[in-house]
Specification:
Layout (H helix, E strand, L loop, with lengths): L1 E3 L20 H6 L4 E4 L1 H4 L4 H14 L3 E5 L2 H7 L5 H14 L1 H5 L5 E5 L6 H12 L7 E4 L8 H12 L4 E2 L1 E3 L13 E6 L4 H4 L19 H14 L3 E6 L6 H13 L10 H5 L1
Parallel strand pairs: 1-2, 1-9, 2-3, 3-4, 4-5, 5-6, 7-8, 8-9
Length: 276
């Protein structure tokens, strides 16, 4: 259980104590939630030096699960453009930099998220080109095109993902929701919120379109999410909240952990241990 990213300025106050340095945000996060998606790699592939720093912070946090999000240059540009040479170039750059995370034990999966406009045939062909290089860990694929609910597209998508040890992501959002199958023994959920009005805006207000993710799940909605997780009957479950605006994802993740009877990841330390 965790959130899609942890480094948000508007979490200072709602989540992080005001005097807590940015360098300690992840360690504080890890006292409360056991897993995280690394979103920074979606915006750019880090340099070797940047990767070393990220891996060191993740090692100190001692999280139970760390998933790295594939760069949009691969999932939102190269694959939709249907250029195998560019697809393999972008995939190789990403997989190569993840070698350090795998070596140091802070890689439990790779998330490849595609836009709702990404056509099924294009996604499947692009995955073939990218996965041919051998990803460094299980690949979990999130798709939003409604056609993926049809057997002719869903089955080959699932086969490609499960061949890596991963699977198809089940989503909750105002757009198309893919819920038909869960990989065995691992299930993967992403909860984006249900802010319909802002979700479909071309350029919603706020930093990086944060208004799109400004949504808090009601108790009865979290209950429905919990039931979906229980119905998966998976040996291992990844569940990440992406409704990050003003710390809502963090609070919803804590509430869902409580509902599912999941213990906090560690014995809590005093705030002085972080601020001292």
């Amino acid at each position: 259980m965790g959130t899609c990213g942890w480094s948000f300025d508007d979490w200072v106050g709602p989540v992080y104590p005001p005097r807590l340095s940015r360098e300690r945000w992840l360690s504080y996060y890890a006292e409360h939630l056991p897993a995280v998606e690394v979103n920074a790699t979606h915006y750019r592939v880090p340099s070797s030096r940047q990767m070393e720093g990220m891996v060191e912070r993740l090692e100190r946090a001692e999280l139970r699960g760390v998933v790295w999000k594939a760069p949009r240059a691969l999932t939102h540009e190269a694959i939709p453009d249907e250029d195998p040479e560019v697809i393999q170039k972008e995939a190789r750059a990403f997989f190569d930099v993840l070698a350090l995370a795998k070596e140091r034990g802070v890689l439990d999966g790779v998330l490849m998220q595609f836009s709702h406009t990404a056509r099924p045939e294009v996604v499947l062909d692009g995955l073939d080109d990218a996965l041919l290089l051998g990803p460094p860990g299980p690949v979990f694929v999130e798709v939003r095109h409604a056609s993926f609910n049809e057997d002719r597209f869903h089955t080959p998508l699932r086969e490609r993902a499960e061949a890596t040890g991963g699977g198809v992501v089940a989503t909750d959002s105002p757009s198309a929701t893919i819920t038909r199958a869960f990989p065995n023994p691992t299930a993967y959920f992403r909860f984006h919120g249900r802010n319909v009005e802002a979700w479909f805006m071309e350029d919603p207000p706020g930093v990086h379109g944060a208004a799109r993710y400004d949504y808090a799940y009601a108790r009865e909605e979290r209950e429905a999410l919990a039931e979906r997780i229980e119905e998966a009957k998976a040996d291992r479950v990844f569940a990440f909240f992406n409704n990050h605006a003003k710390g809502k994802a963090f609070r919803d993740a804590l509430a869902l952990m409580d509902r599912l009877g999941v213990d906090p990841p560690k014995d809590r330390v005093t705030l002085d241990d972080f601020l001292g």
